[in-house]
Fold each of these.
Amino acid sequence: MGINLKVDLGAGLKLDNPVLTASGTFGFGHQYAEFIDLNRLGGFIVKGTTLEPRQGNPAPRLVETPSGMINAVGLQNPGVEDFAKYIYPTLTGFTSKVIVNISGAQVSDYVKVAEILAPLEKVSAIEVNISCPNVKGGGMSFGTSPEMAAEVTAAVRKVWPRHMMVKLTPNVTSVVQIAKAVEAAGADSVSLVNTFLAMVVDVERRKACLSTVTGGLSGPAIRPIAVRMVWQVAQAVKIPVVGLGGIMDASDALQFIMAGATAVQIGTANFIDPAASVKVVDGIEDYCRRHNVADISELRGII
Ligand SMILES: Cc1cc2nc3c(=O)[nH]c(=O)nc-3n(C[C@H](O)[C@H](O)[C@H](O)COP(=O)(O)O)c2cc1C
């Protein structure tokens, strides 16, 4: 039986299967090409890209936690001009979709990054990371206020011609409210979740484990909360939802799909096994075969 794993996220973003890799956990994609066939993925989402190059935060910026890890990498990246000039040419030969995750400290940063990426035809979509602090908005993250989230979405919408995914932070009281705000402002899809604000104390040294004190928690520890949020958002918006947070295998990915996600992203699992994402594709196909599912859409939102 031929199983159809193709999914359509709208606004021209069609994937061969629902599996993407998550930003910040898969480099710029090409680093993983020696471990896996990138064309087996629905697509890959590259590192958070900013207008100017960023060194990121000083070490220590990673700490392991029970069933997860906290990172404070701080969006280390060479900047969008460098991406366009040196990295983009390494990504144009793949059949899987290339999505660029963009970040900024003010609305105009996001807009400029999107403008620079717009002529790069093989960038099928951008994922707008609204978890960043808004320096002009008192340092509050764009994604924690419906107004700021809508403002940045609408501004990028004006300059970005292809699919625009907006990535939501879970560090809010109502993620549904933020999802609805970015949908109304022109997002083609929403992805969730980004990391949860967290911290660990080293009691022997009497210091926080991270140089920044707090960081973002990811991995299996966050999965049940992420599944709940995806389920809530999928019922509240009309645009497709992309689910992530602690997916380690196909069964975890299917939880998100059954909760309403059209596609999923694999993040922290890539650090444990660089082939995790491809194994999720194989595992979903195997599940469909075992359960006589002819089309992945039969499983979407059945909860
Ligand atoms: C080391 C690291 C770097 C990350 N960098 C970014 C980033 O640049 N932009 C972004 O939107 N999310 C970033 N994330 C968040 C992930 O894309 C993802 O949303 C989060 O880790 C939850 O998924 P997971 O539990 O499968 O890792 C990063 C996560 C980690 C662990």
Amino acid sequence: MSFIKVAKTSDVSENRMTCVNTRHGRIALTRIGDELFAFENTCTHDDGSLDGGEIQGETVSCPRHGALFNIRTGAVERMPATEPIEVFEVRVSGEDIEIKID
Ligand code: FES
């Protein structure tokens, strides 16, 4: 496990998603208040791109069939998805956003 740089803090806006490509696949970043979140960008139901959905509180909705995931834990909060998404620990180093990844 190590932290890798994925974006600049200025790249990520409140309640909007920024998608980055990493060796672990496509990862979405968002900011809620002062807190940054990073999570797998692919819905576990049928591979919808979550960055096309909406952030509501600490959840993201999938634009394809409406599944809802908690972006802090990855847990499913609304079907049709049944498997959680992966979430990643985030830290800020200067102006860089880094996430912990295998
Ligand atoms: S692909 Fe996300 S709910 Fe179906």
